[in-house]
Task: inverse folding
């Protein structure tokens, strides 16, 4: 026993110094977590997407292309994915100038309010999507705050029907995602040395030229990060189309949910998920040929 | 505020030169930027303020602004067992996921920064992939996976998945702190005879602990608000606040939702402020 006790620290050392053991704990634990709870489930739905649906959400494990044929033969699902990407594009295009302007202001302003304004964006970033989305129902619906205000001011005679339209959905989504654009732009703009801009001006550059040649290139990492987050989140949005959208608003996330929950058709929901994932992965691949994905994610997430 | 426009770094010469044949002074341009910024803030903040005000509105139809104020919807909230259960669940899952992602994120970030191994760049993307895969897909995939594995829905399931969703944030925040870290401190400790565990406990951990706390706060906030994936993972007894709000919205619009949303708003704002405040106070003393 006494020798056993004496060996224990040595054994501990041997274990701690073993490269494999160390790799398994750090970084292996995190990598393993993602493989086990994300990649393995993704593999499972890949397999199931080639299986047939049984009754009550059961899956019949027989190889079939049925789900993919169903997707390919009907235009409706192709259109829905296409429309989701278009909505994502529109929201990104709207949030870019708004978010950039606000981020630029925060980065350059010397007002005493700056830290409060910055804090408000961070708080906004934290507020759950469900609340930010719900807020627009109260504001925009027929007896909502905006209509009550406009009616009482006599600007309009009858309530505006702006709720449950593509407009309300795009507005809600754009505003919800603005913090994702503002924060990275602020970070990259505030890192620009003001002397460079002054130097350009002294050498005779116009405002526009100084912006184009100095500010814009140096704030590009912020723009890239913002665009990446806003596009991925808005194209895959579930809450905004469900709660704010109208009868003509069709996006992929609510459709997958309906197929999964209401139709109880797990294999087809799996196939739609795999197809949409493949498209997003392909777009990200195109994206990474031009920019560093890791850097873009890091700028956005920290 | 009058000195603001000077910060665009624009000189008076610009005002004379102009472009596109139009002369706009720097001051006007800066005021335009400020106006857009104000509009952005109004759009972001005002709807949330409306929720908070409406939660004190005694009228069910919610005429705005309310004529009188009351706390009847908060009383209704306190009497609703399902909602209290949901709030408790959300808090428990959020705290557990924060500790889970904080622990795993620390170990993983340490492993990436302190070791060299093959395929490091690809493995970083693996770790960050929960940020890239749309939550609707994560939701469906995990539900099918746990379902086929025969694991019933539980709070543990939620903790495991919310840890996954928070892990990229924890990893990135802690790693960026480790990059700033003076590695010779660790080497010194090891030369003086400390083993790896002691070195980590006595040297590394105290220095990176602020970033660990920050990352845990962010993971809590993400977990507390996550809906799209979580909606598939809950059952009646493990439901969370966002899921309850969503199902209430499906049936009726009632100021009770505003009250619950306000509670959620307060938690998401107060918890980080308190934790980060304590962190700051501890660091000072």
Result:
């Amino acid at each position: 026993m006494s020798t056993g006790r004496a060996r224990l620290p040595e054994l501990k050392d041997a274990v701690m110094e073993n490269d494999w053991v160390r790799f398994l704990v750090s970084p292996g634990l995190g990598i393993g977590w993602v493989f086990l709870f994300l990649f393995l489930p993704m593999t499972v739905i890949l397999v199931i997407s080639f299986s047939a649906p049984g009754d009550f959400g059961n899956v019949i494990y027989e190889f079939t292309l049925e789900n993919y044929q169903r997707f390919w033969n009907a235009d409706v699902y192709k259109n829905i994915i296409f429309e989701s990407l278009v909505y994502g594009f529109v929201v990104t295009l709207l949030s870019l100038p708004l978010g950039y302007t606000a981020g630029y202001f925060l980065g350059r302003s010397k007002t005493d309010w700056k830290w409060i304004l910055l804090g408000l964006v961070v708080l906004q970033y934290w507020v759950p999507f469900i609340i930010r989305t719900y807020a627009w129902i109260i504001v925009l619906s027929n007896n909502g705050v905006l209509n009550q205000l406009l009616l009482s001011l006599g600007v309009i005679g009858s309530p505006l029907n702006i709720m449950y339209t593509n407009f309300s959905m795009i507005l809600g989504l754009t505003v919800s995602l603005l913090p994702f654009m503002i924060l990275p732009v602020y970070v990259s703009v505030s890192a620009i040395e003001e002397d460079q801009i002054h130097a350009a001006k002294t050498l005779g550059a116009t405002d526009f030229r100084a912006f184009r040649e100095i500010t814009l290139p140096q704030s590009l990492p912020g723009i890239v990060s913002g665009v990446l987050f806003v596009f991925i989140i808005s194209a895959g949005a579930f809450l905004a189309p469900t709660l704010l959208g109208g009868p003509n608003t069709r996006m992929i996330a609510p459709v997958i949910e309906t197929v999964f929950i209401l139709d109880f058709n797990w294999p087809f929901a799996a196939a739609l998920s795999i197809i949409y994932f493949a498209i997003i992965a392909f777009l990200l691949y195109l994206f990474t040929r031009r920019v560093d994905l890791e850097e873009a994610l890091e700028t956005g997430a920290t | 505020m009058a000195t603001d426009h000077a910060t665009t770094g624009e000189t008076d010469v610009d005002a004379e030169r102009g472009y596109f044949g139009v002369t706009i002074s720097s001051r006007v341009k800066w005021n335009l930027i400020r106006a857009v910024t104000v509009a952005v803030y109004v759009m972001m903040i005002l709807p949330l303020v409306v929720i908070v005000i409406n939660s004190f509105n005694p009228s069910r139809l919610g005429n705005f602004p309310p004529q009188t104020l009351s706390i009847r919807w908060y009383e209704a909230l306190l009497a609703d067992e399902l909602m209290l259960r949901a709030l408790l669940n959300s808090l428990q899952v959020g705290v557990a996921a924060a500790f889970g992602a904080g622990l795993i994120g620390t170990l993983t970030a340490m492993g990436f920064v302190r070791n060299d191994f093959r395929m490091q760049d690809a493995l970083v993307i693996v770790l960050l992939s929960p940020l890239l895969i749309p939550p609707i897909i994560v939701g469906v995939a995990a539900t099918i996976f746990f379902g086929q594995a025969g694991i019933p829905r539980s709070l543990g399931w939620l903790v495991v998945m919310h840890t996954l969703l928070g892990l990229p944030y924890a990893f990135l925040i802690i790693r960026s702190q480790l990059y700033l870290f003076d590695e010779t401190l660790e080497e010194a400790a090891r030369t003086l005879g400390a083993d790896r565990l002691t070195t980590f406990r006595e040297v590394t951990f105290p220095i990176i602990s602020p970033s660990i706390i920050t990352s845990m706060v962010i993971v809590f906030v993400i977990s507390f608000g996550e809906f799209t994936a979580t909606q598939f993972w809950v059952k009646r007894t493990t439901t969370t606040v966002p899921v309850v709000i969503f199902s209430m919205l499906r049936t009726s619009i009632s100021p009770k939702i505003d009250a619950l949303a306000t509670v959620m708003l307060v938690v998401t704002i107060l918890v980080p402020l308190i934790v980060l405040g304590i962190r700051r106070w501890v660091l000072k003393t």
User: Anything to note?
Assistant: The longest strand of chain A covers residues 52-53. Chain A touches chain B through 102 residues (CB under 8 Å). Chain A has a mean pLDDT of 88.
